[in-house]
Amino acid sequence: MVFFMANNSSDTNRLHQDVVQGDQDTWNRLLSQHRNRLRRMVALRLDQRLQGRIDPSDVIQEAYLEAWTRLGEYLQQPDMPFFLWLRLLTGQKLVTLHRRHLGVHMRDAGREISLYQGTLPETSAAALAAQLLGHHTGPSEAAIRAELKTRLQEAINSMDPLDREILALRHFEQLSRAETVALLGIPEATASKRYLRALKRLKEVLQSMGIREVGP
C-alpha cells in the first residue's frame, strides 16, 4: 500500500483510504492532482500528425476510466508509484491511438519501445523542439522559426537515446529524480550525470542560436 501514497501527509493518506472504500468523488479529486503532469507527457509523445485530431484530455480520461476498473488489481500488487502507474496507462492509450489512426503510416514500431519497462510512444525531437520554441520570445516569422526548429531537432537527435529520454522525463515532463530512476531502472548517479550532460548540450545549442531560455 505504501506505493499508493502520493505523499506522507495525513490528509493525502486519508484521501487514499476513501478511494480504497470506493468513493468516486474522492477518486476524482485524487486524479486531478496528476492531470497537469499527464498532459505534459501526452503533449510530448502524441504524434504530431494527430495533434488537432485528438484531445489530450480525452486520452487522459480514457486512462482514468481504465485505472478505476483496475484499481483493485493495482492495490493488490503496487509495484510502482501511483502516478507512474497512471502515466503507464495513459501511455498505453497513446500507443493504441497511434496504431488506430496511423496504421502502416506510423513510425517504425521499434521506436515505440521505451528504454524502461513498458511500451510507450517515444518522445520525438520535433516535439521537444516545439516545446522549446514555444517559450522563445524572439522573432516569430515562420521561416526563421522553421529553421530554428530544424536545427534544434538535429541537435536533439544527435544525443544519446538514453540522454534524450532522461532530458524529456526530467526537464519537459518534470518528473522527479526518484521517478526517473524508477522508470529507467538505472543508478541514480548515472541518471543525474546523463541529465546534466544532456542539459548542458541543449543549453550550448540554444545559446549558439541566440536563445537564452531553457524552460519546459
Subunit organisation of the chains: single chain
What is the CATH C level class of the largest domain, in words? Mainly Alpha
List how many beta strands DSSP finds. Answer: 0
List the uncertain runs: 1-12, 108-117
- Please bin the fraction of helical residues: 55-70%
Total individual domains: 2
Q: Could you give the order of the helices and strands?
A: HHHHHHHHHHH
Structure classification: mainly alpha
User: Could you describe the largest sheet, including whether it forms a barrel?
Assistant: none
Q: How would the global form be characterised?
A: globular
What CATH calls the topology of the largest domain is Rna Polymerase Sigma Factor, Chain: A
Strand content: under 5%
C-alpha Rg (nearest Å): 18 Å
Tally of contiguous helical segments:
11
Distance between the termini: 32 Å
CATH architecture of the largest domain: Orthogonal Bundle
The mean pLDDT is 76
Q: How does this structure look, described?
A:
There is one protein chain. This protein is mainly alpha-helical. The protein has 2 domains: 2-112, Rna Polymerase Sigma Factor, Chain: A (Orthogonal Bundle), CATH 1.10.1740; 125-208, Orthogonal Bundle (Arc Repressor Mutant, subunit A). The protein has helices spanning 10-20, 24-32, 35-45, 56-69, 71-76, 82-102, 125-133, 142-157, 161-172, 177-184, 188-208. It starts with 9 loop residues before the first helix and ends in an 8-residue tail after the last helix.
